[in-house]
Amino acid sequence: MAALQYFHGGDQIRDTVVGIAASMAYNAPGVSKELPILAFANADDGIKVSARGTKDLVARGLDLSTIMREAAKSVGGEGGGHQVAAGATIPPGKEQEFLSMVDRMVTQQLGLGFR
Fold first, then answer.
1. Is the pLDDT of residue 3 over 90?
2. Mapping DSSP to helix (H, G, I), strand (E, B) and coil, where does residue 87 land?
3. How far apart are CA 46 and CA 26, in angstroms?
4. What is the three-class DSSP state of 37?
5. Between the CA of residue 87 and those of 29, 30, 40, 47, 114, what are the distances in Å?
6. Is 7 helix (H, G, I), strand (E, B) or coil?
7. pLDDT (tens digit, 9 = 90+) per residue, 14-49?
8. pLDDT(114) > 90
């Protein structure tokens, strides 16, 4: 996507550790620190999402807590957290709609415009 990176672990990542998986992936070789990362995992109560950024991105205006809360709410879920690390639970099948909303919000917060 234009303003973020993501992966969907499905049933391969337990929903209880999706935040750890997001952090590990974000620190893997070849993953850009210029964009936040989102990780998805299936859960009994929906799709768990974990978002991670950097302190540098926060200094540039990123607030993942606001993004997760507002994007999740827009698709019938709920979210929140911290500026640099946040999460959400969204209904199954809403991942692409959620990602589009997050992508737009990150673009606005970081002033990325169209790339």
1. yes
2. strand
3. 23
4. strand
5. 23, 23, 10, 11, 26
6. strand
7. 999 999 999 999 999 999 999 999 999 999 999 999
8. no
